[in-house]
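Researcher: Please generate the 3D structure of the following complex. Treat every line as part of one assembly.
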Amino acid sequence: MAQEIFHASVAQLSDKLARKEVSAVELAQTYLDRIEAHRDLNAYLDVRPEVTLAQAKAADERIAKGEGSRLTGIPIAHKDLFVTKEWSTSAASKMLEGYMSPFNATVVENLNNAGMVCLGKVNCDEFAMGGSNENSAFGKVLNPWNKDCVPGGSSGGSSAAVAASLCPIATGTDTGGSIREPAVFTGITGLKPTYGRPSRWGVIAFASSLDTPGLMARSAEDCAIVMNDMIEFDPKDSTCVELPKEDFTRYLDTDIKGMKIGVPRKWFADGLDPELAASIEDAIKTYEKMGAKIVDVELPTVDLGVPVYYVVACAEASSNLSRYDGVRYGHRAQAYTDIQDMIKRSRSEGLGLEPQRRIMIGTYVLSHGYYDAYYIKAQRVRRLIANELNGIFKDVDAMISPAATGPAYHFGEKSEPVQAYLSDLYTVPVSLAGLPGIGMPCGMHSNGLPLGFQLVGSLFSEAKLLGMAHRYQCETDWHKRVPAGY
Amino acid sequence: MQWEVVIGLETHVQLSTNTKIFSAASTDIGADANTHACVVDLALPGTLPVLNHGAVERAMKFGLAIGATVAKRSIFDRKNYFYPDLPKGYQISQFEWPIVVGGQVSFMVTPKKGEPYMKTLNLTRAHLEEDAGKSVHGLEMNRSGIDLNRAGTPLLEIVTEPELRSAEEAVAYARTLHALVVWLGISHGDMQNGNFRCDANVSVRPVGQKEFGTRCEIKNLNSFRFLQDAIEYEVRRQIELIEDGGKVVQATRLYDPDKGETRQMRSKEDSMDYRYFPDPDLLPLEISDEWLDRVKAEMPELPEELRARLEKDFGLPAYDASILTTSKPLADYYLAVAEAVSDKKIAANWVMGEVSAALNQQEGTTIETLPVTPAKLAALIGRVLDGTINNKGAKQVFAAIMEGNGEVDALIDSLGLKQISDTGALEKIIDEVIANNPKNVEEFKAGKEKALNGLVGQVMKASKGKANPGQVNQLLRQKLTA
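Model: Done. Output below.
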């Protein structure tokens, strides 16, 4: 039974549950056993079998009474950035080690209400700051394709867990690429919805104008199915956009024929791994074969994305992380002389190097005398980039581009911060514009690691984007590959 | 040297919403510590602010009341600093784009020396922000605690131009502003609980000098008395300092009411860099014309409008109109009395005279709980106007109602205050008085007008106060000049 379950899609699991071929409790227990067996990956930070099994039991009861929905009994893992009442939430920071939230994030609550069974909380970069998961205070996560390599980040626990079948689907968050990049590093499918579509209530803030909850799964179809229950207008998040309830699966059967796909050619030149470039070219050809029209798109200002992103994101982070002062909750220093000293020591001890670095950058760019030169200028350029990216969707249905400069890299390979920041060049412009994007696999590197691309759409076009991704996955089987031994 | 005082005020007015500005927690005070602090107020991870539209509408009403521009688009910013009673590590405020821009407030200034005068003060802006919590010191084992019940309470910070020229003007403005926000129903104005707190920016300059002197900001003055005393002290301090050859150093100062002096809290050099930037958790606040029109329709008659109406339609002097519109309850009281009394000026005299005196004398009595209700006062004035009793008698009735809640006519009877309306009886008394006071009579006939007053007094005395002084005066004149 095991392999059949672990490699099954959400739709297949849903059918098995409906036909009573497997119970939610059996499913949950099978995954819990597998999580325990693969602890070396360090994907999970908090697993509480008794709570998971209680949720599974409740799901079984709903199914028995005929009250289950399509997702009732389907297991899911949540990135440790989503606060949960029944599992601790640390944002992978020592600052919040063991923190128990009195409420659930809206995304978690919505999926709970649908009857999904939570397997636990998965690892990530501390406060979602990083692209390799090496910045977790609780240790790096290993890429199941090659344990010497990063699983991507910041949603590295989510990507590794899905890739290693330690859950069929996981939530992630994407601020500058934190879903799309780990998805292509682990050969899975990751959806970053439009900023403002999913609720941020209960998502520990990194950069509020960019943070976007999303999903990481084996396929675009699985993401679409779960999006239906994840997305609902939330008045608790003032930046959540009020739109009618939407069926995110409605484009899954829509033909690609006649659609236009833009390709930003400049991103295929210098700095891109040649094997990755070739495999994305293959994906473009596949779309062409399916009837899509491929056109070049010009993006003259996107190269400013990385500096703009690190100004804006760090500015917001420096303020968002101010609440971690050791006064009300979280880490408090043992010894201190006065209140200011207590706050200083607590933060110095509780926050890791990368959050500290970004707090310092953010504090600097917001400081008197620098604000106009950095923050205001960055906001202006952000607007230009957003206009430029939004503009191309007048002509095209989607854009195909790399999501990373190459396959997953080795631990320690990008330990120099600026080098790490520069590798975000393909993902951050999309984030700055608030656009939806999907990272998904399209080949294998000669070094045995998966390769992938991102598909980007116009604002609130995630349903169409999921449809386009699904059509590609109907033509190819890259998303069905699993790492050896998993 | 002659010095000119320059003052600008920043006033924090607590708005009267039931819930906080960015959370659903109650704004009730007096609850146990931290029981009115929800997950948003505690700044727990993952929480987000949602703007309370009740607070916005109160700010809109204020803007409309002072003839300011209510911004179609305003921005909430984060003011970043670490303090244990500031849970998020930043305060949500408005910096560059406030909700209210400009506007004017007019008020009557009554200086210690010289005549009362009207002043119109320009306001710079008013913006919405949240209050912080408070630190509680001296708990057991010498520990300090944090109470976040107040955190997130909505405030409107109202900033004036530096156009106030004395402590008296500052206090007159503050009183008018206080009355206005209560009048509008946008604040409870409870000063004891910090609903209305002023920061005063004070500087001095030689008369005739154009440039401002170096200013000091005195923080957190929560009574009109402290505002007056603190400014007066600070002005003296600055003048003495300069005259002794010193220099005023720009600083933030605190007023110590026990010592009656201000002392330095922090100098400009240690002033904090708040790193303001737009709060990405909140969208820009957009106010549509429809919304503004809806709020406009809910506006009560403004004190200024009523003041003009009292002058124009009721024929009251400017001073009376200004005094009677200093607070909504006072104005409502007067309007209720005036409605039932033909002579609006006499009604004003009674309200400004007996009623105000009674309120001053009886601690804890407010105009709403005064035993002399507007109906009773109107009835009483009516009895004066129709000649039933004279003013002196009316005052006795007033005092009696204050003590025992009787009815006007019953008290007139029981106190025996009815005036002698029988001209024959009155003439008899007058004749006796003329006969008994030949000296006064002679003096009056010799052209000494004042002598008549003595005779009127005698008649009033002989009638035991029941005579109508006007009538007595008239009859005396007739008899003496006949």
